[in-house]
UniProtKB/TrEMBL annotation:
Residues 344-367 are annotated as: Disordered. It comes from Sedimenticola thiotaurini. Belongs to the autoinducer-2 exporter (AI-2E) (TC 2.A.86) family. Its main location: membrane. One of its GO terms (cellular component) is membrane. It is a multi-pass membrane protein. It holds the Pfam family AI-2E_transport. The chain crosses the membrane at residues 12-28, 34-54, 61-83, 144-163, 197-218, 224-243, 250-270, 290-313. It comes from the Bacteria. It is found in: Membrane. GO terms for biological process: transmembrane transport. This is Membrane protein. Keywords: Membrane, Transmembrane, Transmembrane helix.
Length: 367
């Protein structure tokens, strides 16, 4: 490699890095406007199959969109009423729960000391205080209520996205220089995002329903609230289910004692293992997964850029980037790095995978 080519590569790297920093800084400054539009985009992607289904049965576009928007608004209103009341009640009872939890923690520390396991109470109260964890959960729930002020803007944006959904492919064909070659890649990119969001939403809904029914049977207060939290945090693999379980299990400990907490924990283990390890891989395949490190880093990054909502959208946003990288031959290696551990045979060749591309084996590339 000549000195000129090395200098050109270095300049290109610096230019790309500078552009990335500028874009991220702009997104962070514009999060108040950007977050509602991102939510609108994901809601439109999830609801698009229902719109196309209605149109396939010759329902006029305007009527189909009205029906879809009414369904979205009804679900949002129902969740807002149920979860809003539960959050208000939970927040009002929080001091009582914290006091009981602090008493149980003190009794647990005394029991450990009696068993010969000394635990400094001051250090424990600063680093591992369960009451603080419950308080943080209440604050996080309250912060999500701020999205309700943007409900009208979100729904209006969803309407316009759905109105443009049918005409966008035709516009794209006119923009692309070589539509016959480029359009299939873009079409596959959109299809993979849509299918990922639909499957992930379905499995998250199943997880939330199982958690709700289980906690309802066990007798933990606010089962609807914990089911909704499990639904949203299921979009964050690995650590999302743990975060969703902590406040519910702490409440179960205050309410029902160790036995009830064990039953509640068993429900979380069964739900997340059934959905995360059996059902979801069956429909999605590992080809659209992310490594555990990428999941954690995306949670931190998008949370810093977009706030609390960015944490919920961290994995869908990162998955969108991964699918976009995978759609181009020159950036496919980055998609592989973002993905989970791969076998010798690419997961995309196996049944159930959403991705269609295939890497050549070594002996094929040598030919």
């Amino acid at each position: 490699m000549t000195e000129a080519s090395r200098s050109a590569d270095g300049g290109r790297f610096l230019l790309t890095t500078a552009a990335f920093v500028i874009v991220v800084a702009g997104m962070r400054e514009a999060q108040g406007v950007l977050v509602p539009f991102l939510l609108s985009g994901f809601i439109a992607i999830i609801s698009a199959p229902a719109l196309f289904f209605l149109r396939a049965y010759r329902v006029p576009s305007v009527i189909a969109i009205i029906l879809v928007i009414l369904a979205i608004a009804s679900i949002g209103l129902l969740l807002g009423v149920l979860v809003g009341n539960a959050v208000d009640d939970f927040s009002s009872q929080l001091p009582t729960y914290q006091a009981k939890l602090k008493t149980l923690t003190g009794e647990g520390l005394q029991w450990l000391s009696g068993m010969g396991v000394p635990v400094p109470e001051q250090i424990f109260s600063k680093l591992l205080d369960p009451a603080k964890a419950m308080s943080m959960a209440a604050q996080g729930l309250s912060s999500l209520g701020g999205l309700l002020t943007n409900t009208f803007l979100i729904l209006l944006t969803v309407v316009f996205i759905l109105l443009e959904a049918s005409s966008f492919p035709a516009k794209l064909r006119r923009i692309l220089a070589n539509p016959e070659q480029s359009f299939p890649h873009f079409d596959q990119f959109i299809d993979n995002i849509k299918r990922y969001m639909v499957i992930k939403t379905g499995t998250s809904l199943l997880t939330g329903a199982i958690i709700y029914l289980w906690l309802l049977v066990v007798g933990v207060d606010y089962p609807v609230l914990w089911g909704v939290i499990a639904f949203f945090l299921n979009f964050v693999p690995n650590i999302g289910s743990i975060i969703a379980a902590i406040p519910a299990l702490l409440l179960a400990l205050v309410q029902l004692g160790p036995g009830g907490t064990a039953w509640a924990a068993l429900g979380y283990l069964l739900a997340n293992n059934l959905v995360g390890n059996v059902i979801e891989p069956r429909f999605m395949g590992k080809g659209l997964g992310l490594s555990s490190l990428v999941v954690f880093l995306s949670l931190v990054f998008w949370g810093w850029v977009l706030g609390t909502v960015g944490m919920f959208l961290s994995v869908p946003l990162t998955m969108t980037i991964k699918i976009a990288l995978d759609s181009n031959d020159s950036t496919r290696w980055l998609a592989i790095l973002l993905g989970p551990e791969v076998d010798d045979e690419p997961e995309q060749n196996k049944p159930g995978s959403l991705l269609r591309w295939r890497l050549p084996h070594k002996h094929e590339s040598d030919e």
